[in-house]
């Protein structure tokens, strides 16, 4: 079965989404709006809701006027939101981003373990190292650590987190009123980690999560990111533009997973799919043009700058092809991806920012349920994807339409479920439950 | 009106609570159990739910066998739990503990701002500096920082948090689809904090909280703690055993608040009240004896050790009066409080640990609705308290009985509300909304 994430940043993925007449930009801090989205995604039998996050306002901007053109720089802290959604949903997975650069492993282990208990086994952690200086400046730094250093910290971080999740064996808590023993002392394990970045004794003050470990999601596509994913990820969220590119990535990633001694079937690779859906092709294209016409040029350029890793693009001519770019400490793979897209399609800077504005660098699918299902099916059946992280253009309409039109078409083709397989995210993704590690 | 907090650690405040036949020790990680507790407290028109927290297993223990006698060393991370409770309650305030020693101010500011938006203005932050080496060892330290150093960090920490909450003016977000301006650029304020412990640029990626700032709760009673409370606290949670002691504290605290240039009416002082309630005095005493009989001696001593700040008591004779104790880097005021109690009541170590086991050092009220209401009323009317942080013996029965028996008695006397005053925690506590600070 094709696995589907619902990637749901209010008010949608198109950068002008919030300006759409039907969009509700206040939704970024409105629980009722998010509850409705989550329940819609659950009605569509999505595997999980996916929430991105930044440890600060990440958008590149030169002044407040430029920033004010953005449609999303305030929003719920994602674990706060997912905790609340957990108790208004039943089956859908709940995956949130948390940074290994600006948190402590003990706190992250606790929060995701708590969410996993709260949701009866539906938590996922999207592990990021963060990629902007803007975030670093909220955490006592002038600029972020080098890419390789962030990943070194990240590798130690997740080891500590996984170790803390295994502080208590699954059946450690016996609650034996008679003997006065709350737990079996033989089933407590002190981590006692001492490493380059962290010294963490443990135990965690949360019982082992219902899933053993919450599902690990990873979205880094750089060599460091891929190596991390090969070792740890169970869901890989990736940016892929063409079938061939996606196949190369898919096969390469699965090889790396096998080389790391893991079963590639236990990792679900989900390229992002930015979707504009209509009842007819013309309706979809109209919808897309409506959104594109709402893109403010100042904003478009600002967003592209952020995607390319804080490179100042203000000196480059807008209507000539994109020049060679200097290297960056940001997300280098993303920069390459966007750069290749510009070359491939012969885009000017202006065309590129419009293109990037739409899907934030992700593949755009603009069409009917049938044409979009064709596209997704082709990738799914040809070793390019195990499923997709679905990115609606604007919310809530975009998700409503996907659930009303696209999901039934995929169900008719037998590509996605019509009922949930189980209660946990692992059950639904078909992932094994990690055995206790000591 | 008397203000009431519902201090609700599953399975209750008595250290043997979990062993009571009616207790549900699994409740520590069971949302439905907590939802019922929260809804009961809301039915009782409590001002807020109060959740304590530790950044690790805080109990003093020499080995796993000793630890296994504890009834509560795993539990939900409190913000995870309060986020979920926020969307199953309407009026009751939601106050959680977060440490200034083991978090970053940007993360704490975000989480409480998010909870305040999620709950439409019902969030409170109980600011603690943490007080055990056990927690420090989960955060790259061998032992905790000195008491004074923790408070110095704490003072800078809260300044940063308050500054981040004021990143955006209340009406900054205009969502103006026409002009393409999501917010008014003149209403964004960059913090740009650079201090001894923190460099934090901002802005926060959450809009100004509905309450302006979530309500600040503080529970430190040392001179540093009191100075902190005088400057920042809006609710003070305190341990007081006798009326005279409570009056001294109350008057002294209000004087310090006034000296700090604040209105003492804007700070609510709530001593803890450990309550065992029965329909008759005999029923209450029976209930208490049932719980006391369930205290494991190894556990009692271990708990006392933790309360006194990680002092090893294993060498002292159990049936002689408590000796002079060495100073500690833990919570010195708590140590003094317990020490004074032992002297006053002429307790042996064994008697003291039994006494401390019951209320964790807090004042015990064992009686009927009438006698307990008499006690609370006396303190409330005689400058000893603005209300109480109510600590039920075991849950859920203890809270059920308080809401069924004690609250109606207090209502009959006109001491507590019969309906909520408003929707926000500030409305209900009668606290002003902080003006935008720049």
UniProtKB/TrEMBL annotation, chains A, B:
Taking every annotated instance into account, which residue ranges of this chain make up the domain Luciferase-like?
14-379
Task: Output one GO MF annotation.
Answer: oxidoreductase activity
InterPro entries in alphabetical order: Diverse_substr_monoxygenases, Luciferase-like_dom, Luciferase-like_sf, NTA_MOA
Keywords on this record? Flavoprotein, FMN, Monooxygenase, Oxidoreductase
Instruction: State its Enzyme Commission number(s).
Output: 1.-.-.-
Cite the Pfam families for this sequence.
Answer: Bac_luciferase
Superkingdom of origin organism: Bacteria
Family label? Belongs to the NtaA/SnaA/DszA monooxygenase family.
What is this protein called in UniProt? LLM class flavin-dependent oxidoreductase
Origin species, per record, is Kutzneria chonburiensis
């Amino acid at each position: 079965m094709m696995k589907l994430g619902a990637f749901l940043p209010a008010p949608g993925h198109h950068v002008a989404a919030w300006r759409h007449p039907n969009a509700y930009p206040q939704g970024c801090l409105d629980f009722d709006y998010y509850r409705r989205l989550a329940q819609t995604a659950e009605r569509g039998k999505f595997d999980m809701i996916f929430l991105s996050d930044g440890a600060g306002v990440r958008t590149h901007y030169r002044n407040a006027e430029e920033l004010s053109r953005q449609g999303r720089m305030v929003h719920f802290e994602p674990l706060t939101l997912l905790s609340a959604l957990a108790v208004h949903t039943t089956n859908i997975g709940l995956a949130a981003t948390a940074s290994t650069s600006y948190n402590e492993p003990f706190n992250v282990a606790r929060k995701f373990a708590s969410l996993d208990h709260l949701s009866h086994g539906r938590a996922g952690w999207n592990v990021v190292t963060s990629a902007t200086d803007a975030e670093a400046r909220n955490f006592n730094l002038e600029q972020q650590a080098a890419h390789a250093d962030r990943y070194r910290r990240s590798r130690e971080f997740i080891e500590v987190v996984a170790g803390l999740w295994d502080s208590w064996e699954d059946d450690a808590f016996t609650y034996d009123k008679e003997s006065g023993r709350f737990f079996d002392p033989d089933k407590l394990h002190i981590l006692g980690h001492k490493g380059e970045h962290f010294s963490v004794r443990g135990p965690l003050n949360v019982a082992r999560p219902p899933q053993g470990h919450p599902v690990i999601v990873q979205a880094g596509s750089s060599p460091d990111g891929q190596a991390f994913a090969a070792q740890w990820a169970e869901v890989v969220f990736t940016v892929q533009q063409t079938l061939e590119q996606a196949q190369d990535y898919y096969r390469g990633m699965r090889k790396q997973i096998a080389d790391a001694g893991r079963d590639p079937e236990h990792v679900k690779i989900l390229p992002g799919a930015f979707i504009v859906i209509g009842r007819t092709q013309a309706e979809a294209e109209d919808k897309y043009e409506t959104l594109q016409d709402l893109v403010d040029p100042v904003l478009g350029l600002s967003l592209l700058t952020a995607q390319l890793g804080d490179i100042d693009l203000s000196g480059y001519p807008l209507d000539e092809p994109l020049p060679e770019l200097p290297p960056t400490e940001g997300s280098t793979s993303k920069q390459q991806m966007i750069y290749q897209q510009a070359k491939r399609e012969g885009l000017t800077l202006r065309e590129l920012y419009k293109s990037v504005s739409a899907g934030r660098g992700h593949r755009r699918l603009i069409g009917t349920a049938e044409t979009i299902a064709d596209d997704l099916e082709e990738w799914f059946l040809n070793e390019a994807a195990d499923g997709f992280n679905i990115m609606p253009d604007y919310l809530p309409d975009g998700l409503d339409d996907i659930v009303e039109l696209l999901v039934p078409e995929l169900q008719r083709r037998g590509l996605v479920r019509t009922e949930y397989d189980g209660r946990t995210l692992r059950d639904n993704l078909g992932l094994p439950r990690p055995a206790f590690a000591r």
